Amino acid sequence: MTRSMRAWRVRTPGPIRERPLELVEVPVPEPAPGEVLVRVLTCGVCRTDLHVAEGDLPVRRPHVTPGHEIVGEVVARGADLPGAVPRFAIGDRVGIAWLRSTCGTCRHCRAGAENLCVASQYTGWDADGGYAEYAVVREAYAYRIPDGFDATAGAPLLCAGIIGYRALRRAQVPPGGRLGLYGFGGSAHLTAQLALAQGVEVHVLTRGEAARALALRLGAASAGDARELPPVALDSAILFAPAGDIVPYALAALAPGGTLAVAGIHLSDIPALNYQQHLFHERTVTSVESNTRRDGEEFLTLAARLGIRAHTTEYAFTDAPQALEYLAAGDVEGAGVLRIG
Ligand SMILES: [Zn+2]
Ligand SMILES: [Zn+2]
To answer: Which of 6, 33, 66, 217 has the CB geometry, 3.0–4.6 Å to 124, for a possible disulfide?
Structure first.
């Protein structure tokens, strides 16, 4: 007997106000060997979903169901892989994140940098994601959601949180250093909490009064405009906004030896840089690509231990297109989450 479920999928990628997503009835996926079937409780709304829906990222699976911050409950297991010990039982609460699979044999995988795997696959891009009532995942790539996070609070941790954690490490902020966060949405507001808990001085540079107010409430030392210099020179900065034109401003705000990490998967063009103004004095600019499973486990452990709390705006499952429109407009305080199960 094949059961069916409701799922959003990308009809044809295009501007979000033209509603590229459609709600369809499709069969519930079958878990393959090594996979578990998850009844989706919540799914976070991430900027990458917007890039998939609008076509900023090339189509990897036509009519894909977006969503890669999934919290759900295991309801079925595929056959066990030979020699593998099952990680999750029926009824366990698990998270499904962006990194879906890696080859395990390329030189990056073997060097412990599976985020750079040449054959990696991603949830909600290469395979159907969590804007649906059910989803499957290889259990080796799923996470246990720490107690203390309900399904709504847990969802944004799975991409916004994990990627922010990796970005913070890539930004090489020294102990007690000064960190600038450019853009202040789902990922930045979690990264700010992590940095503050570690004794870092945080400066937020973003448009939007609500975002600035949230930054100050969380403990940021200042909140101002991304195109103005912060009150102090920064040791490190992370660019969360997908706006390449901010790169020269962020580089100019760095102290000698400082590092700028660009956290997004997609960035508009970076204007010409001036060597003296933007790069000299050994300033570094780097990108952040996805995460390793180890990053994910470390972050979830830290998030529970340090009391990291996502500020969420909840949406009904049927309101997924509106949630993406609000995100596109920069109109979400904290992180958006779809309530599904
Ligand atoms: Zn690999
Ligand atoms: Zn994401």
So the answer is: 66
Q: How many CB atoms lie within 10 A of CB 147?
A: 8
Ligand 2 centroid to Cα of residue 44, in Å, is 8
Ligand 1 ion: residues within 5 Å (CB):
102-103, 106, 109, 117
Count how many residues are written for the chain. Answer: 341
pLDDT digits (tens, 9 = 90+) for 186-195: 999 999 999 9
In tens, the pLDDT along 76-107 reads 999 999 998 899 999 999 999 999 999 999 99
Question: What is the CB neighbour count within 10 angstroms for residue 318?
Answer: 12
CA of 186 to the centre of ligand 1 (A): 29
* CATH class for the domain made up of 162-287: alpha beta
Domain 4-145+311-339 has CATH 3.90.180.10: yes
Ligand 2 centre distance from Cα of residue 274 (Å):
32
Is the entire prediction scored with pTM above 0.85? Answer: yes
What are the boundaries of each domain within the chain?
4-145+311-339, 162-287
- Cα(242) to centroid of ligand 2, in Å? 13
